[in-house]
Each structure stands twice: as structure tokens, then as C-alpha cells.
Amino acid sequence: MLLIIISVLLGATGQLLVKIGAKHLELDFSSAHLLQSLLAISKNVSVMSGMVLYGLSFILWVKVLSKVELSYAYPFVGLGYIVILCFSYFVFKEDISLFRAIGTLLIMIGVVFVARS
């Protein structure tokens, strides 16, 4: 269970770092500017740190899946939604609609049910 939670938190943190870095990038993926955009991404410390955390998350996830059933482990990925929702609200000052909050609450309830199974 601890490896599942660590993997999910690393993935969510990676997502947050990519968002932070992406705010400072102006990307154009047309053929004329593709290389320039890829170089800008590779030079962005936040985006690259996020990718490293994704990689670590993936490695831990492989370890998790070697030990537990996928149908047990995968619903815990929903915890990432909760982490992201909280950071989006408090750090990025995003508006969270009632429906989004209710949906996240339902995800939390689902994770609790899976954890108890």
C-alpha cells in the first residue's frame, strides 16, 4: 500500500511541476518550430523535474503491479486527482466547481471502498 501511495504522489507531483514549467513556455509544434519547442522543454527545469518524477513513479508502479492485483492497485491512481485538485485550488488559484468537488469526493469514496476490499 505504501508503494502505491508513493507512486501516485510522485506522479501527481510530476504533473504539478510540468504545469508550473509549462506556464513559462510558448510552444509551437508546427514543423518549422518543432525542434525549437522541444529544446525549450528540455531546458525547462520544472518540466524536466516533473518528467523525472513521472519516471520514478512508473518504476514504483511496475514494482506495485508485480505484487498486487491491478484491479486493487489502479483505483488508487484516483488519489492523484485529489492531490491535483487541492494544489490547483490553493497554489494555482483555479476555480473548483461544485460538480468537480463532488466528483473528487466520489473518487475518494471509491478509493476507500477499494482499500477495504
Structural class: mainly alpha
Poorly predicted regions: none
Gross morphology: globular
Mean pLDDT: 91
Number of domain modules? 1
How large is the radius of gyration? 17 Å
Count the beta strands.
0
Strand and helix order: HHHHHH
What kind of sheet is the major sheet?
none
How widely separated are the two ends? 13 Å
Helical element count? 6
Tell me the β content.
under 5%
Helix content: over 70%
Molecular structure report:
The structure is a single chain. By secondary structure, the chain is mainly alpha-helical. It has one domain (2-116). The protein has six helices and no strands. The protein has helices at residues 2-22, 34-42, 45-65, 70-73, 79-90, 98-116. The two termini are 13 Å apart.
Chain-wise SSE layout:
Elements: H1 2-22, H2 34-42, H3 45-65, H4 70-73, H5 79-90, H6 98-116
Question: Can I get a quick summary?
Answer:
The chain is mainly alpha-helical. 74% of the residues lie in helices and 0% in strands. The chain has one domain (2-116).
